[in-house]
Amino acid sequence: MAERRIELHVSRYRPDRAPTPYVESYEVPYDDDTVVLDALNAIKDETDGSLSFRWSCRMGVCGSCGMMVNGEPRLSCAAFLRDLAPGPVTVAPLRYFPVVRDLVVDMEDFLEKLREVRPWLIREDEARDEPGAHRQTPAQADAYRQFSMCINCMLCYSACPVYGQDPEFIGPAAIALAHRYDMDSRDQGRDERRAVLGRDVGVWACTFVGECSEVCPKNVDPAAAIQRSKLDLAMRGWRAVWPLGRRP
Amino acid sequence: MEISPHDIVIVGGGAAGLRAAIAAVEAAPGSRVALVSKVYPMRSHTVAAEGGSAAVLGADDSLDLHAEDTVRGSDWLADQDSVEAFVAEAPGELVRLERWGCPWSREPDGSIAVRAFGGMSVKRTAFAADKTGFHLLHTLFQTSLRHETIARYDEVFVTRLLVEDGRCRGVAALDVRDGRVRGLAARAVILCTGGAGRIYRSTTNGAINTGDGMALAYRAGVPLKDMEFVQYHPTGLPGSGILMTEAARGEGGYLVNREGQRFLEDYIPEKMELGPRDILSRAVMNEIEQGRALEGPHGPYVQLDLSHLGEETIEQRLPFVRELARDYAGIDPVREPIPVHPVVHYMMGGVDTDAWGRTRLPGLYAAGETACVSINGANRLGSNSLSECLVFGARAGVQAARDAAEAEAPPPSRLAALAEDEGRRLHSTYLEKEGGRERVGLLRRDLQATMEAHVGVFRTGESLEAAARDLRGFKERIGGLSLDDRDSTFNTELTAALELENMLDVAQAVVGAALARCESRGAQARRDHPVRDDVRFARHSLAFAADGGPRIDWSGVPITRWPPAERKY
Amino acid sequence: MREELRRPGYLPPMPRTWWLRTGPYRRFAAREFTSLFVLAFTIVLLLFLLALSRGRDAYESFLGWLDSAGAMALFAAILAAGLYHTITWLRLSGHVQVVRLGHRTAPRDAVTAAMVAVWLVVSGAVAYVHIWA
């Protein structure tokens, strides 16, 4: 049977040689199991060792291999060439992030935002906690589970035009992570995170385009986390003004 | 060259490395701890672990039972004193992780749930659905963000340990971002770089598992212990090698051959699908050799059948397995069985350490899959590894903090000279090299093919000798590597070449040890020596780096309460 | 090491026409744009009240305008925009509205479908009252 081949137009950027990116074309064989990542590895191993990209687990859990495939943010380990045939397929680095080299983008801003939302279990007074594990019912665990599934792949940031226009925006994944802890029955740090989320560059910058949730490969639904956080903040604001129903 | 001063440098940011970092700063709050990882920590391969983390949590369980299961699973090669310490500390670690926010799956009453797992006589494997490693890693990483004294060096690749006056005093590392080699000074260095599954073609491991820490220690004169014991996980997807967790069998899944028979009744009827991994992998390979397996585009396979578990159970307890089977095998396990066959998964062997993570090189420690304490001996029980990372990551962190407080600061000028040497070596070997015709990717494939063909589930003296010859040939060929990429900025062909150097050293240690151990025990199955020989080989192998290949020595196995017996289930 | 590197990389500025570049962005822009039609409808209502408050002649002349071709075209556009506005709004609600079914949550599409059904029933009732009753 004749081998199937497909063309890839891959965005290259080699700052040591040239100040701007350019596109390089490669042709690779593929079968029903070949993903874009496999094609990139074949190119690197056999043809062009200078092609740089991040990857590791190749099973959609490490979050390393996010890139733009045919203009959409995808995990390259989950983008099957059989679905993109006959091609050509464009492969580019994740949108809205500074490109370091070829398909590799700078992640420092994202890491900083993760830290900003205080993504750890906060207890009011750890000294007064009883020893041993906290109890948490299956229903309580379900309340935040979906928001804990984020693999930090950053596809949501590449889908978000607000982040594209204003890199100060905290962004979908960071807010979803904050929400994960806010919804965790063991956490008592909601007020601390409200201070972060309630800023202008927090949840209020979001205009609910909703694309973040569409591209999320793990169904975290960061858009939901953001809107629910907006509701929570709004209710807090309301209660601060309106004395009836104020919580003790 | 400037040297960044630290008290403790941890190489590798997975479960063991992150746990060590947190333990170190908690034990010694003022200390300057550096976490140096060639990838951002949440990419570490801990993230792919699925099934669970074992500890004695229930009233129906006991430390003795967990220890005995572990010792039996190890085919009596585990250090029993270390195993006793391990089982005693594992429960506290799981509770600590829970307090840090780990989303363990729960019983209806709110307590941490446990499931059955291979080789465990009692249900003691705590789990977070079937993404335990993912949740564990992210909990550890997010908790580490709380400690601002942990300085992180992300995408920085350690290429050499700096040893001065018989002590490890720091590391030389390539900053992948800009291509410069820097030195980090330390009073203690902890290696937590994981395993080396990528020396094989078919593995559950990610790209990054290239045995870097093992090679660093090996080249610094520290021996690698029990390297011949490579664990094959019985249920990986053919072709990709993607892991189908043991939890699928823990929840009641069956393994069937071409005739639809649950063939394990012929091998281990007492345990069936919950037998230990070495026995199961051999069983599957035997079915394949006897012609009772199915044929597929990626070779022969047997079937993991979950269809009788029902959609509810699968969605509740094995949702990730369902997702992976659909995406990568085109199978919905609710309706059809999943094709599986044994794939390389874990290295029981590693850097020789004691139960506090200390190696015989003062100032150097190791923990996690990189280390060999040994608590896993010749075969590891599933769900002991995540617990191992936590217990020994913590121990190494605490011990390193203690020792660092008493150690002298390393002399910066001498370290600078060593680091500069390393920078020059990298430049001349790779970036300025003329001539040379070998491609990194192709040489790597040849290495993987050799290991796959000659150092598999079943080995013979001949196959191992063939592998040793091939590896010596690769050692020569690697001197002729020529990189396409000579750039400084984010040169991943350079890091691939460095990884290949490490893989080759590790592979030689594996083959050398396998040749020296003329017996079958645990995961080592030699057709020419099919029986366990406690008289000659109830010992750990130690592979020391030497010209032409490793020199093998031996060390004793501490036995406390479980004298070697026949490994029956 | 990180602090020393202050050259994050190559980042082209976001084009002003970003909202035309992909299908999802175009649909988002269209959705936002429909609010202008909602505004237009509100203005027509206010003009209606104004006309009502100015007496019979103003009221009659306003009703006359409502029958004109221009007004028809405007209302057709408002209806189309309003429908798109409503459907996109209901789809988004699926993200925010959590519906618990035992220990599971209803999938987003199911929540949206339920809301659309309620909307159709209520709209049907209102239409019935206005047109046939």
Q: Report the structural category of chain C.
A: mainly alpha
CATH superfamily of the domain at 17-80 in chain C: Fumarate reductase/succinate dehydrogenase, transmembrane subunit
Low-pLDDT segments of chain C: 1-5
Query: In the CATH hierarchy, what is the architecture of the domain at 17-80 in chain C at level 2?
Result: Up-down Bundle
Categorize the overall geometry of chain C.
Answer: flat
Helix percentage range of chain A: 25-40%
CATH topology of the domain at 17-80 in chain C: 3 helical TM bundles of succinate and fumarate reductases
Structure commentary:
The complex is a heterotrimer of chains A (248), B (569) and C (133). By secondary structure, chain A is of the alpha+beta class. Chain A has two domains: 4-105, Ubiquitin-like (UB roll) (Roll); 108-241, Fumarate Reductase Iron-sulfur Protein, Chain B, domain 2 (Orthogonal Bundle), CATH 1.10.1060. In chain A, 35% of the residues lie in helices and 14% in strands. A five-stranded mixed beta sheet of chain A has the order 2-1-5-3-4. A two-stranded antiparallel ribbon of chain A has the order 6-7. In chain A, strand 3 (66-69) and strand 4 form a beta hairpin. The model of chain A has no long low-confidence stretch (mean pLDDT 95). Chain B has three domains: 3-229 and 348-414, FAD/NAD(P)-binding domain, CATH 3.50.50; 235-342, Succinate dehydrogenase/fumarate reductase flavoprotein, catalytic domain (Flavocytochrome C3, Chain A, domain 1, Alpha-Beta Complex), CATH 3.90.700.10; 416-533, Fumarate reductase/succinate dehydrogenase flavoprotein-like, C-terminal domain (Methane Monooxygenase Hydroxylase, Chain G, domain 1). Chain B has helices spanning 15-27, 63-73, 80-99, 132-144, 212-219, 247-250, 277-289, 310-317, 319-329, 384-406, 412-431, 440-454, 461-478, 492-516, 534-537, and strands at residues 3-5, 8-11, 33-37, 53-54, 114-115, 125-126, 150-154, 156-164, 167-175, 180-185, 188-191, 224-225, 230-236, 254-256, 294-296, 299-305, 338-347, 350-352, 364-366, 371-372, 458-459, 525-526, 539-544, 551-556. Chain B has a five-stranded parallel beta sheet, with helices on both faces. In chain B, strands 20-18-12-23-24 form a five-stranded mixed beta sheet. In chain B, strands 13, 14, 15, 16 and 17 form a five-stranded antiparallel beta sheet that branches. In chain B, strand 9 (167-175) and strand 10 form a beta hairpin. The longest helix of chain B has 25 residues, at 492-516. With 133 residues, chain C is mainly alpha-helical. Chain C has a domain at 17-80: 3 helical TM bundles of succinate and fumarate reductases (Up-down Bundle), CATH 1.20.1300. Chain C has helices at residues 23-53, 56-66, 69-96, 108-131; strands at 100-101, 104-105. The interface between A and C is medium-sized, with 36 and 21 residues.
